[in-house]
Write a structure and sequence with these properties.
Layout (H helix, E strand, L loop, with lengths): L1 H23 L5 H22 L3 H27 L11 H8 L2 H4 L1 H4 L11 E2 L2 E2 H31 L1
Helix pairs in contact: 1-2, 1-7, 2-3, 2-4, 3-7
Length: about 160
């Protein structure tokens, strides 16, 4: 159940970002796009984990999703404290990842940066988008941590 909720929340976060972009003209910067990619990757990994019946592979997928959520937290923090204060985020790590994986060409309507870091700063109810993203990544990490511990106990019982 937890993995399904996580996948739905991740897809919902990307959906909310797309509504903000296309309905309210809040254009994303490369760091915003990287967070979208991380949310989509977490949703995909959780979906695969849901379809996995064996405990050890499910545990490994959950650990991977946990690592992705921690990376998402790092991305949001970097955007908030560093990238938002930079004059340009062209050729930043986020920009190189997106262009290196050709994500901006694969799905340009969803994964193409359309603003610079300082131009892409937007708020929802007085809170920066990247802080909302950080909060969601943190909640996801907490839930996944609980799932991983539960699965580890299950594996441990199987080894006795």
């Amino acid at each position: 159940m937890g993995l399904l909720v996580i996948a739905a929340c991740c897809l919902g976060a990307v959906g909310a970002a797309l509504v903000s972009q296309y309905a309210f003209d809040m254009q994303p910067c490369p760091w915003c796009i990287l967070q979208r990619v991380q949310f989509l990757a977490i949703a995909l990994v959780c979906g695969v984990a849901l379809m996995t019946q064996r405990v050890v592979p499910r545990l490994l997928f959950c650990v991977l999703a946990l690592l992705l959520s921690l990376a998402g937290m790092a991305t949001a923090l970097w955007q908030h404290f560093v990238a938002n204060n930079a004059f340009s985020c062209s050729l930043s790590l986020a920009d190189r990842i997106i262009s290196g994986l050709a994500l901006d060409q694969l799905m340009p309507a969803v994964l193409a940066p359309r603003a610079g870091c300082t131009d892409g700063r937007v708020e929802l109810w007085g809170v920066s988008y990247e802080l909302w993203s950080l909060t969601l990544f943190g909640i996801i990490a907490g839930v996944l941590g609980t799932i991983v511990l539960t699965l580890c106990r299950s594996v441990g019982r199987g080894l006795r």
